[in-house]
Amino acid sequence: MNSIIHTEHRDVIHDCSYDYYGQRMATCSSDQTIKVWEQNEKGQWIVSSSWKAHSGSIWKLNWAHPEFGAVIVSASFDRTASIWEETAEQKPTASSTPAKRWIRRTNLVDSRTSVTDVKFGPKNLGLVLATSSSDGIIRIYEAPDIMNLSQWTLQHEIICKLPLSCISWNPSLFRAHPPMIAAGSDMAQSNEPKVFVFEYSEYNRRWTKTENINVTEPVHSIEFAPNVGRSYHVLAVASKDVSIFNLKPIVEQSGNTRFEVVQAAQFNDNFCTVWRVTWNITGTMLVTSSDDGYVRIWRMNYLKGFKCICSYKPDSNVNHHDPQAVQLINSSTTKFFKKGVGAFAGSSQIQQH
Amino acid sequence: MSSNDVAVCHIYDKLSSKTGFIGKFVTNEEISLHGFQPVFYSTKDAPTKYANTDEINVIHVSENFILDDEILRSLVAESCNIFYNLQSIKTKSNDVFLQTSRVYRSAIRATLNKLQEAIIDDCGENDIKKYESFITIFYSIECLWHLCEFLLIDRSTMSVVPNLLEWTKFHFPSPSQSAAEMLINKDRDLEFRESYWETVRGLILQGQIDIVRALLRFHSSSETMTFQLAEKELQTMPVFNSHGGLSIQKFRSQWSFWSSALETKLDSGLFSTEIELENIMKLIVGDKQAWMQVCQDSKCWYEYFAGFLFFTQPAVRYFELGTFADSWLGRWSSTKGMRGYTELKSLDLMVLATLKNDMAELISSIQDMGDNKWFVVHIVDLLVHCDQLRISDESNGPSVVALRECLIFDYGTMLMSHGNLWEIGMDYLKFSSSEGLGAREVLLQRVPIKNDIQAMKIIEIARINGITSVEQEVCRVMVKRSLFLENYGNALEWAIRSRDNIYVTKVANIFLNHYCNTGKMMHKDLLSNIGAKMFIAPRLLFLIKYFDFHQFYRARAFSQAAELLVNLLDSKIIPEFFWPSLLADTIPLLEHNEPIIPTKETYIIMHHLESDLIPYLAKTKKERENKKEQEGELNLMNACSDDLVQLLRLACARNLSRAMIIENTLVR
What we know:
The structure holds 2 protein chains of 2 kinds.
Chain A: E1 2-6, E2 13-18, E3 24-29, E4 33-39, E5 45-52, E6 58-63, E7 71-76, E8 81-88, E9 100-108, E10 115-120, E11 128-133, E12 137-142, E13 153-159, E14 164-169, E15 180-185, E16 195-201, E17 206-213, E18 221-224, E19 233-238, E20 242-251, E21 257-267, E22 274-279, E23 285-290, E24 295-300, E25 306-315, H1 323-330
Antiparallel strand pairs in A: 2-3, 3-4, 4-5, 6-7, 7-8, 8-9, 10-11, 11-12, 12-13, 14-15, 15-16, 16-17, 18-19, 19-20, 20-21, 22-23, 23-24, 24-25
Chain B: E1 8-12, H1 14-19, E2 21-27, E3 30-35, E4 57-62, H2 70-87, H3 94-120, H4 125-153, H5 161-171, H6 174-185, H7 195-205, H8 209-217, H9 225-236, H10 248-267, H11 275-284, H12 288-297, H13 305-312, H14 318-335, H15 346-355, H16 359-366, H17 374-385, H18 397-416, H19 422-430, H20 434-445, H21 452-464, H22 469-484, H23 488-498, H24 501-518, H25 524-528, H26 538-554, H27 558-569, H28 579-584, H29 586-590, H30 599-626, H31 636-639, H32 641-667
Antiparallel strand pairs in B: 2-3, 3-4
């Protein structure tokens, strides 16, 4: 089953972000608008709000955890990141549903250059977010009163020296894991490591760099895997290929934690640059988007190896878009003992007596 | 890791064919795709070259999910129960596994019946099409499961052929049905029916000798020599029975003796007067020509396979079955003019794999049945339980166990990611790997909350499974949602459940602010029933106590009201914004006909008037001046601040004088 949503954005969509439950979608574009979408009873996606949000291209969007309400943060070329909250307008009559409107609660203007990525932190840290920008600084903001989204304080600035392209919080909610952020740089002209991992020390009240991960090619996207009962962290890095790093904490005698960084897997997408990596909720599958235009789904098998189970190719010819082929592929998205598709072209072939 | 053998799905999108796709997960079971332009730190902002050209689309792709259909949902629920029971069984006996397998199968058959009924009830064209495809899927599942049941799960019977015949009889019921019909009607002119000999032959091919004999007796020439001879031969035909006490060798010699005798009779033309009867006898002795003839008419390769074994290899064992199946299939496909297995249907191949005990092939192909892996999960689980799953190219046990865990994990996460079946998914993940246990927590949090009842349900399931973090999270989400819908009573209830000070304070503030602005308390029923839970947060405690004060006042219990009010004033849990309102409430009590508030308490009121109210009023006044044009959080009481202070001072003074006089009089 697949559905096409005509967004009516006037320019390319840069990011498409889903809320915690996967029931609402927000899209942002070079046309400087944000659109928020919901599903109606029939499962069709309907735009519920659309507004001009910035005075530059909007690169990234991110939803806050629903326990903070319906809140989005947007990062733009116009050097700002904005916090948006959905509010109900006064009901015209008691029975009608209130009209919804997104209100800009605050504008984070500390960056002097394009804000390249923005992410809300794990909810156990409260309402925090981190931005990365072209000037090579990670900024961490916090709303001290989670009920008042118009007050944000810039808590920390972490200087990385290289221009940053992407950022990811470690989503672990495990108490023993201190807050952790990884950032990547897409600077092309140097051989320095391009992935940095920072940890927050409660004792010093500051962020310190714990690791440089040795990826020297420009990094376009990074993401920590959701931590489902693991003692170590898993980070996916999109560069000229996809690398999966395991970060295992080692406690040194001095009490500091360091990480043993092991490259757990590395795979190429048809030898193309990889633009984006994203994990699924359980951290068992990875979606990669690469320069050949394909999107591939990789599945972690029980030996922790990765296998591509399916790929999607954009096609300009409408005839190639036959629904049966789509269904065939879809039925194989979560294959384990997969030997290849084709033996079973639709259930209608089975003889019935 | 090559991606050569990976299925590529072409998706039509004009823009993306120029720009390439970017993909993201929507839920665990759905991904979204859209056209994309790489952005670098150095990218300058300008409209891309695609601006205002092609349509900008987002495409959602997901697997076709059939299990949330109304009829299949009950199968999912029932099979979950069976699955659950199987996991908790302690005694591992053959009977238990056989029993479980039969329960599974009867659930499938019940579903098939329901689907048939739904089609008969004429539920609309789309649904009929859908249900027909479901029937195809689940019919195949039943067919394979039945095979697995007597070949793999039931280890008590040594001989395969009777079971195979039974299985064939079930899946090709037409000979038995027409025979039954003929026997009931008992008309003497049976042989004039076109289907008479077809039915008799069909029965022979399914080894139903007794019914054949009964039918033959109804033939008009049943008294003739030929028929009598046939009757005698059929009567004396030895039948292999593993419990019969005969050894296989002994049986084989008996059989060859009998069949060679029959063959001689055939050769000497004893049956030649009745061609149909002769044909049948030829089948019984395994005459090649006769069998090739019937193969021509067969619908699929295994229709007469069991019958062939019955007359040629009645004592065959399971491990020998593959060889016979292969040779039979070779013969069958050559009479059909087929080359190799390529023209076989997928069900045919799966049946073959089962007969050959090629589990790797079977498991790999039953994953593609379009049943969202319902079958593969349950059959693999059952086979692992009764230790009958051997995958030839895997050297030993652990991989089978891992396979089972992985399948259960997939099935469980899939159910949890689909609206109505998440509770069932929880049950499956419980029996998967340790990752499954972790996934349960993550996925439970992400079950979309449709309404209050579902929120309660999620909390309940979380409690049962000891996932403690979920309750507070769900409550907080519900608070936020209720606030958004301006359903404050609900918000307060959920806030109290969450036991989160911040959320409770926030909602209690809304109640107090509402009171300040309108002079009315919201949701009085709720407030009067909170009880001991008010101690969760100081602000809630204050709200409830203040509400109690109102109740006293309305009941004209003025002295109690006054006492409570003074206690509140001294309690240090008063929100700053509430000072004007609270002190205003003292005025009617101070001005009451008969003095209620004694001197000491009056001093307390005066103290708070000077040390709390006046600084607060001064502060708000300043704030208001700072942002005159903006409407701050003004409440009714703030607006008339100066008058309020005057009134209060006057009331205090008057009450003080009255109270002093009375108190001093009483002492003397």
